[in-house]
Structure formats: structure tokens, C-alpha cells
Amino acid sequence: MADPILVAKNDSKECFLLPDKANRHGLITGATGTGKTVTLQSIGEAFSRIGVPVFMADVKGDLTGVSQAGGGNQKVEDRLGMLGLKEGFEYAGCPVTLWDVFGDSGHPLRATVSEMGPLLLGRILQLNDTQGAVLTMCFKIADENGLMLLDFKDLRALLQWVGDNADEFTTEYGNVSKATIGAIQRGLLELENQGAEKFFGEPAMKLQDFMQTIGGKGVINILEADKLFNSPKLYSTFLLWLLSELFENLPEAGDLEKPKLVFFFDEAHLLFNDTPTALIEKIEQVVRLIRSKGVGVYFVTQNPIDIPEVILGQLGNRVQHALRAFTPRDQKAVKSAAETFRQNPNVDVETAIIELGVGEALVSFLDEKGTPTMVERAFIVPPHSHIGPVSAEQHQQLLANSLVAGVYENVVDRESAYELLKARTEAAAVAAQAEAEAEAAQKEAEQQAKEEAKAERASSSSRTDSTLGAFAKSAARAVGSNLGRQLVRGVLGSLLGGSGTKKKSSSWW
Questions:
Q1: Quick one: pLDDT at residue 480?
Q2: Which of 16, 198, 358, 462 has the fewest Cβ atoms surrounding its Cβ within 10 A?
Q3: What is the pLDDT of residues 318-371, one digit of tens each?
Q4: 98 bridge partner residues
Q5: In this predicted model, what pLDDT tens digit does every residue of 6-31 receive, in sequence order?
Q6: DSSP letter string over 295-349?
Q7: Strand partners, 164
Q8: Distance (Å, whole) CA 467 – CA 463
Q9: Are the C-beta atoms of residues 378 and 360 closer than 8 Å to each other?
Q10: Could you give the CA distance from residue 345 to residue 375 in angstroms, rounded to a whole number?
């Protein structure tokens, strides 16, 4: 059985997080500057010390210090002295793997378009219901036609192919509007301009690389998210996709002595902003069931009211830092937060929430029976590691010495939808050209045959005319000669004949 994790302490009470209850999820809340990040670091490294791998997103760029031993921080020394923890407190760092969706500050972290799926991709693209339905249809067409969707160019080629051949899919899938295809394509272009196309492709992230240990310590996987956070939809949807992958691919484990992995979801309010009901239900299902896979999920945000109640009720381990009560919404958040704790007669929770100092929190964890303990007002135990970012040289060393160094750096571009559709298009173009050439040759042959037939007719007509002409001339000559003779005989003969008769008569006389 793993030792309990000391998270917070006051004058009379030590507050422990039980490893075998850590997969019942948790919540870390508080206003900006109240100590949430240090609490996140302290709990994360505590899990690492007992051999539990951790994933956390570094939105502010100051969590890499968990890789180095602490020390030399007077505030930490003072806190340890106040809590009576100096004796036996050893500064130490944790094994760390750095990841970066853009591949700039960490190892590239990729997924394929197919793995992301139409629901989450539609959320990133902020598609409406109609556009989302068309995107889902395109994924189904790709599956049925054996078209792998690995990267953005695959999806672009698929969308263009579906749009160009929309009439072929209408009967089976329904109408496909070119305007809708165009809207999705524009959304992809916008994501590309943000550099998001680097996230889609291969080699895709393998879950086992998130769940490693070194020297008995769990590896802390840090997502360098300072740049990614500038695209809130992409950031939150990526983390949700990662949770979904864990849920869908890890085997059932039941209640373990300690989790297989602890997942910290920082700036969790982004996950639920403008999120469709269907997706909220999906998130609720993942959070509810993923604990049976041995994964603990800890949401980190400013106000408890950022989390839907259906999910908030599943977060058994709570750390509540100070909240501000300047507006009606803030006052509602304070009241809501106070009501979610198991009341302690010695603590006025609603008042304490607005009085807490930096590094001080209201704490309640699950006990051995899985029941929330009464809330305690206590100070968070400082981390054993360095607070703040590492130097540039240390950052490079972390990358070079990582267990996955060189595994994800080189992009692999397998034959997929883009290449197959391009080949189909080229083959169709060649076939069309061949058909056009054959048709042109046939027309040319037919035209030549017509011209030859015409020429033959003209030649035959010429020969006929020549024969008839000769015959006519011959006949004319013959007729003319005969008629001539007849005329001569008839006319001249009569004349001459008459004269001759007279002469003959005359001679007879």
C-alpha cells in the first residue's frame, strides 16, 4: 500500500490524500495569485514520488522547475519552519518529459484526424449542427472507402472529393451543400494559420509513453501550453481528446492501491465554455467511468461554478484557495464553494474562503471509506522541487535525456486519403484525356471517311459526266451528220433533183 500524501497542514491536523482514493478525481480552485500552481506542482510531484505518472499542462510556463531539486527559496524555508517540516525534508526533482503540440519547446505531440474524430474536430472548428453533420458524414464516407485520415491534407482532399461528387452521395447520405463544405474548409484554413496542422499526423502519440517510471518515480509529462493556450478551443479540445483516448484504450482496472496515471486539467473552465449539451454528456461519461481504468482527473480552475454540477459532484478530493467576492457572481461562487464541503463546526467556510492567504486553502479529501472528510483550513506543503521555470540549458538537457528523445521528431507521411484521392483524380484525368483523344480520333476518322466518300462521289460524277459528254458529242455528230445529209438531200436534193429532172427530161426530149 502506497503511503498517504501529505498535502496540507495546520496547527492541529495533517491533511492526507489517500493514493487508493486518488482515482476518485479532484478539484483545485482559487483566484489568480492564490497559489493554485504551486499546489498543482506539490501534489503532482507527490504522485511522482510514489511511482504514479502524471500529466499536467503548463499554461504559464513555470512548471518545468519540478524537474530540478528545490532549495534557496526563503519563502519555502519559512513555510517549512512554520509547519514544523524542516526535519527530514529533502529537496529533489522528478523525471520529466516535455511535450509540445507545435514541436517547439518539447517533443511533438500528434494525433491523427481519424483519432480526433468529427465530434471533437467540429468543436475546434466551431461548426454548427448542419456543418457538424456533414463532417460526420465525410468521416463515414472515408471509412467506407478505405481512406485513412491522418493529417489536414487528407481531410482537405476528402472534403473536396465529397463536394465535387456530392450528387453520388445524396441518395445514401443526404444533400451535401458546397457552401457547407466551403465553410468547413475555411475553418481548417484558420486552424492552419494558427499552426494547428502540426498536431495532426504521424507518428501519433502512444499512451504508454505517458505512463512511464524512472527509478521508481513516475514521469511527469508536461505539456508546454503557453502558445497552445492562445487557441483556447484547440487547447481544451486537445486535453479532452487525450482523456477520451485514455478512457477508450486503457483496460479496466478497478480500484487500485494507487492510480495508473493522474491527469491535471488546468484552466478547466475553457472545456465547458460554449460547449454543446451532447459534448457535456460525453465529458461527464468519461469522468465518471475513467476512474475504473485507474486514472484520476483533477480539474484546476478559478471558481467551482466553472464546472457543471453533474461533473462537480464526482470530484471527491478538494483544495479551495481564496476567492474574491467583489461581484454578485463572485459572491455566488463563494456560497457555492462553501456548500460543496462537508461542514466543520470549527471552520466558517464562507467567511474563510475570502480570508485565505497565499498558499492557504480549505481542504477536504476522501477517507478510507470514500467519504469526504470535514473541511480543514490549512497551509499547502511546499514542493520538494524548484518553483519556477528552468534555464534554457536545463530545458535542452530535459529534451536530450528524455525517454522519447528522437521518437516523434521525424514526421511520417504514409499513403492515406490525400494520396489515394490524388491518384484517383489523376487516373480519372488520364482516362478522360484518353477518352477525349479517342473521341477526337474517331471524329477525325469519320470526317476523313466523309471527305473521301465525297471525293469519290465527285470523281465518279466527273467520270460519268465525261462519258456522257463524249457519248453526247458522238451522238450529236452522228445525228448531225445524218440529219445534215438528210437536209441536203431533202433541200438541195429537191432543188437539185428538180433541176436535174428537168435537165434529164430535156435531154430525153
A1: 54
A2: 462
A3: 999 999 888 887 888 888 888 889 999 999 999 999 999 999 999 999 999 999
A4: 222
A5: 999 999 999 999 999 999 999 999 99
A6: EEEEEEES-GGGS-HHHHTT--EEEE-----SSHHHHHHHHHHHHHSPP-TT--H
A7: none
A8: 6
A9: yes
A10: 9
Q: How many CB atoms lie within 10 A of CB 446?
A: 10
Contact 219, 213 (CB under 8 A): yes
| Strand intervals (E) in 82-231 | 96-100, 107-108, 213-214, 217-218, 220-224
Work out the widest C-alpha separation in the chain, in whole angstroms.
Answer: 193
For 407, the grid coordinates are 521518437
pTM: 0.83
Residues in the chain: 509
Q: Chain-centre distance of CA 451, in angstroms?
A: 62
- Structural domain boundaries in the chain: 22-110+204-333+381-400, 114-194
Residues ≥6 apart with Cβ < 8 Å to 412:
201, 202, 203
What stretches in the chain show pLDDT beneath 50?
479, 483-509
| DSSP H or E segment with residue 262 | strand 261-266
247 close to 240: Cβ distance less than 8 angstroms: no
CA distance readout (Å), 259 to 1, 255, 347, 414, 437 = 12, 8, 31, 36, 68
Q: What is the dihedral of CA 30, 33, 34, 40, to 10 degrees?
A: 80
